[in-house]
Amino acid sequence: MIHLEKIYKWVNNGSNRVFLLKDINLDIQQGEFVSIMGPSGSGKSTLLNILGMLDEASEGNYQFLEQDVYQLKEKQRSQLFKENIGFVFQAYHLIDELTVYENIETPLLYHNVKQSDRQAIVADILDQFNIVGKKDLFPAQLSGGQQQLVGVARALVAKPKLLLADEPTGNLNSKQGEQIMELFLELNKQGMTIIQVTHSEKNAAYGHRIVELLDGRIDKK
Question: In the CATH scheme, what is the homologous superfamily, with its name and number, of domain 2-218?
């Protein structure tokens, strides 16, 4: 499903290059559940953003579903993302002007799901996440934990082939966090590929394998 070859990412600081990722080679098969771990500053979120096509590598090749991502036009790349990838952001990235209901519904609009179906799907997921009572509120009216639940619900509503999750339980209490991880496990059993960035050993253990990053490189212990 995913093939990364010799991926480098750097930013220029004056005349110096500061490397965020160095020589990343990674293959992820359809249906895998992979946990990415490593200390702060090791490049975890940068790698996730590159996988999610939100950022581009400075050098290297990225193939997603046998398509060469960096050879695609911007519009094609955006389409590939919208049709296949759900993203749970650490900072939520909910749309402030939209209600909880509308935020969750947004990915279904990209998939051209008809209105009656959208209503049923959103109603189901609101119920699943126990946030029916919040559906008409705006993000600013929610706690951090509630915003995170809405972010997870939005990422999952269109049943993406690939779910990318950056610290998906960071602002949740332990019970909510466990529920999300169990849900991920269930979705993975149904065939969804999941890549999560986490500091939690407990959450990482839900994955089939752990990729350790250290100083921008995959740590081959």
Answer: P-loop containing nucleotide triphosphate hydrolases (3.40.50.300)
